[in-house]
Write a structure and sequence with these properties.
Elements lengths: L1 H5 L7 H15 L6 E2 L8 E2 L7 E2 L5 E2 L3 H7 L1
Antiparallel strand pairs: 1-4, 2-3
């Protein structure tokens, strides 16, 4: 993450990068091992015969299932 931030044309401050790394280290230990869509929004949901909606074009992340609700809204 630090290497990627250093390569940005609009470099992030060291404070921001350090804060992001600290959050990832803290939260990464407690994340559920659940496969989630990762890119759920209105254009990635279709009407379907087998149910009211069908989610398409997943990114496939591991994380909290509640994340999809936030991206959908």
């Amino acid at each position: 993450m630090r290497k990627g931030a250093a390569e940005l044309t609009h470099a992030l401050s060291l404070y921001v990068v350090d804060a992001a790394v600290a959050i990832i280290r803290e939260l990464g230990r407690t994340q559920p091992d659940t496969l989630i869509h990762g890119d759920l929004h209105g254009r990635n949901t279709l009407r379907a015969d087998r149910g009211p909606r069908l989610a398409v074009d997943p990114e496939g992340y591991s994380g909290d299932p509640a994340y999809g609700g936030g991206t959908l809204l």
